[in-house]
Amino acid sequence: MRMLLIHSDYLEYEVKDKALKSPEPISEEQKKGRLEEVLAVFMSVEKADESNPEEVVEKAVAEIKDVASQVKANRIFVYPFAHLSSELAKPDVALKVLQRIEERLREEGFEVKRAPFGYYKAFRLSCKGHPLAELSRTIVPSGEAVSKEERNIALEKEEELKSYWYILTPEGELVEVDKFDFTGHENLRKFANYEISKSRIADREPPHVRIMLEQELVDYEPGSDPGNLRYYPKGRLIKGLLEQYVTEKVIEYGAMEVETPIMYDFEHPALEKYLNRFPARQYVVKSGDKKFFLRFAACFGQFLIKKDATISYRNLPLRMYELTRYSFRREKSGELSGLRRLRAFTMPDMHTVARDLKQAMDEFKKQYKLSMEVLRGVGLTPDDYEVAIRFTEDFWKENRDFIVELARIIGKPVLIEMWKQRFFYFILKFEFNFVDNLDKAAALSTVQIDVENAERFGITYYDEEGKERYPLILHCSPSGAIERVMYAILEKQAKLQARGVKPSFPLWLSPIQVRVIPVSDEVLDYALYVAGKLEGAKIRVDVDDTGDRLNKKIRKAEKEWVPYIIVVGKNEKEQGTVTVRRRSDGKQVEMQLEDLIKEIRSQTEGFPYRPRPLPLLLSRRPKFRG
């Protein structure tokens, strides 16, 4: 069963037509209904619920009671809503489950109304909008038969785990999330709502999808599994530069780069146990009679390397890194959304062996700062993302000052998720989360302190006395998935565009940094000379040699977000100058070519470079879309 629970000022409905051949019989009075100050519970009864309907009823009632107590609601509106699932139960089973839930809630002392089952209905709802106002729940009967490959204990536990949510200020004040004043922190409010609701379904197309298609960066691939994308030349350039940038940053930090397989033995004892501790759905493939799974992170390969290595305390902290192209997670189809959530993605993945908690926490803080630095390089500042820190109640009591310092470093309030006891393999985790134009959040950078997998995989180090010890392991992605970084960059530009600001890429990421536009064929030779000089200075440049009018050429360059547009005519050719239009400030100036090269190089210094991804002349280029 899937439930969407919305604390509402009111919910009202009106029956319009039959959705089933034999819907639930209703009276005229039941064709309309309204309830005020209500917890609206939208429900889909699923095929899996048929195995134990009564257990599903009891679990659903328990969840509804728990949410109702949190939002202080004593009125419940049970609303059949088939759109929450694509695996629906038989209508007769679904109706009985809904009727029984209605009965049980009344027995618990709630005022209950239920909308009719089997009809198309119009409804109006006013959501209260506080952090606990929108929540989702998934109920799985314990008797449901699932295969070993399909079952993931960590995912099931993640849905059942009870979280306590707070906001932590840089001053060290811990405030229950529903009591925090979000004035001036609207993005944090949206992030808290998203995290607490646990609803990951994308019901609309986010704006970055339009941009990635218009700019001919990335496209859907109908010939593959959904969530696997195709990259056109400009998109591949941006992705490649990001991969190179993050890798250089991590190696500069002190990590050793390795490469490991993408496919692992499903029956490997250590790997099999880890599968049920990591909340990700895996792809399973067969080779002969053996089953393998496609990796969903670089953990497995790096752990197996560390297991076979001889590690001394003098080697610690020991950092190992791989850029995984690709990692695979079998996300639900409704969660797939452009570049935000994919089934195949590129993850920069570093794992650090630390001798003890003190060294691990020192590394954690350094990697926290490294992640801030990496995101700043791609144009994302702390104003663009929100921080979540997750840990157990015991960890908070023992390390409060350390957690407060993390909030102080970022310089703004952060979201805290606290558990009474630990279930996952980590004791501490942070994420930097980008909140997009649809108020959905996606994790970028993350670091976790892992207390289980050294022993599980047999990873040890020798201490000063020559004794073998189990270390702690930090999992770090200083940027998050490369595709998700692209998503965040595009979504940020969509926000700016909505405010009337010209969107742009960071200059070092712009597929074409300069476009040279000759006013006529007579000066094409000079345009090519200018382009050659720029290209020699490692600046990506192209030339619009098409027969379009000058204004159209300029509009085309603007539409492609080209940062610098150079228009050359007879005067420029005779004087050896260029007339430059800057996208950043809209100014048009005449300058020496050498000065333009210096200006561009000053903004791209320290970042990776790749040559132009398309032919020099626009007339030679294919159109990839439309």
UniProtKB/TrEMBL annotation:
InterPro entries listed in its UniProt record: aa-tRNA-synt_IIb, aa-tRNA-synth_II, aa-tRNA-synth_II/BPL/LPL, Anticodon-bd, Anticodon-bd_dom_sf, DTD-like_sf, Thr-tRNA-ligase_IIa, Threonyl-tRNA_syn_edit_dom_arc
Uppermost EC category: ligase
Cofactor annotation comment: Binds 1 zinc ion per subunit.
Catalytic reactions of this protein: tRNA(Thr) + L-threonine + ATP = L-threonyl-tRNA(Thr) + AMP + diphosphate + H(+)
GO biological process: threonyl-tRNA aminoacylation
Family annotation (Pfam families): HGTP_anticodon, tRNA-synt_2b, tRNA-Thr_ED
UniProt KW keywords: Aminoacyl-tRNA synthetase, ATP-binding, Cytoplasm, Ligase, Metal-binding, Nucleotide-binding, Protein biosynthesis, RNA-binding, tRNA-binding, Zinc
Domain Aminoacyl-transfer RNA synthetases class-II family profile: start-end pairs: 210-503
Keyword Protein biosynthesis: yes
GO cellular component: cytoplasm
Compartments reported by the entry: Cytoplasm
Predominant location: cytoplasm
E.C. code: 6.1.1.3
Family indicated by similarity: Belongs to the class-II aminoacyl-tRNA synthetase family. Archaea-specific ThrRS editing domain subfamily.
Protein's UniProt name: Threonine--tRNA ligase
Organism of provenance: Thermococcus barossii
